[in-house]
Design goal:
By secondary structure, the protein is α+β, with helices and mostly antiparallel strands. The protein has 2 domains: 6-167, Trna Endonuclease, Chain: A, domain 1 (3-Layer(aba) Sandwich); 170-255, no CATH class. The protein is built from 8 helices and 16 strands. The protein has helices at residues 29-34, 46-51, 72-82, 144-154, 163-167, 170-188, 192-205, 222-235, and strands at 6-7, 26-27, 38-39, 55-59, 65-69, 87-92, 95-97, 107-108, 111-115, 120-126, 132-133, 139-140, 157-162, 208-209, 238-239, 252-255. Strand 4 (55-59) and strand 5 (65-69) form a beta hairpin. Helix 7 (192-205) crosses helix 8 (222-235).
Length: 257
């Protein structure tokens, strides 16, 4: 391993020094090796729950759990990941790094995503206004050099997801904010027969409007049809232009080729 001779006082763009209970701490290989990460999801401290606004989101990719996010931006990141067909699982507060900084005895990363390739990436989710400019010109969170050094030492991938990046996917986020409650219905009340009937209808008749699918099915409650369609979209069995267009009853849906 390359020796990471960073000083915690140099890890912060604000120029203030960080300490381990009042003592300067050298971030060398020994410190990194002894700082074994603790996998989450980790609960959010109660004092932060009391003062912050939270979003509670049903997440298929978190194993059907209710995911708690501390900010609307973190909630947007969950919807962004739910709508990404390359993401197979996610975890909020996925990794705790037990190296003290001036505000806390540890750092807990915001989001972990695992992709179809098996590659896992831990993210810090921040507004662009919260980032500091580093000497190399990069814009990163205050504790990023510590996070980056720890992840590199332990073989993890890490990145920063900002409001600027998420704004590029705002239509996907809006659509999945609407669709996920229907996906939950489909997961909690599975109806594989109905889903197969929808797939068969699309195979036989080609692309159809989201709201017209009831015309090709036996009499079925509209909510059940919407739930089945949402679940098929989430699984990637059917496709609609969810990244670029708002989902309405007029949206075209087709079998995934």
């Amino acid at each position: 391993m390359a020796n990471n001779q960073l000083q915690l006082k140099n890890l912060h763009g604000n120029g203030h020094s960080a300490s381990c209970r009042g003592a300067d701490l050298r971030l060398n290989d020994t410190v990194l090796a002894n700082a074994t990460g603790i996998r989450g999801p980790h609960s959010i401290p109660i004092e932060r729950e009391r003062k912050n606004t939270f979003c509670r989101i049903y997440s298929v990719k978190a194993g059907g759990r209710i995911v708690l996010t501390e900010t609307v931006l973190e909630a947007d990141a969950i919807y962004f990941a739910e709508g990404d067909p390359d993401v197979v699982s996610l975890c909020e507060q996925p990794m705790r790094i037990p190296i003290p900084v001036e505000r806390s005895p540890y750092i807990t990363l915001d989001l972990g995503l695992r992709r179809k390739s098996g590659r896992e990436v831990f993210y810090e989710i921040k507004s662009e206004s919260q980032l500091n400019t580093r000497p190399d010109g990069r814009r990163t969170p205050a504790d990023w050099p510590l996070i980056e050094a720890w992840c590199a030492y332990h073989g993890f991938n890490c990145g920063v997801l900002t409001d600027i990046e998420l704004s590029k996917h705002k239509q996907r986020i809006r659509n999945w904010r609407s669709l996920l409650p229907f996906v939950r219905i489909a997961r909690e009340r599975p109806n594989p027969t109905l889903e197969q009937q929808i797939l068969d209808a699309l195979e036989a008749h080609g692309p159809q409007r989201f709201g017209a699918m009831v015309d090709f099915l036996p009499p079925t409650p509209a909510q059940d049809v919407c739930a089945a369609q949402a679940n098929l979209l989430h699984r990637g069995d059917v496709w609609a232009a969810l990244d670029t267009e708002p989902l309405t009853t007029l949206s075209q849906m087709q079998r995934w080729q």
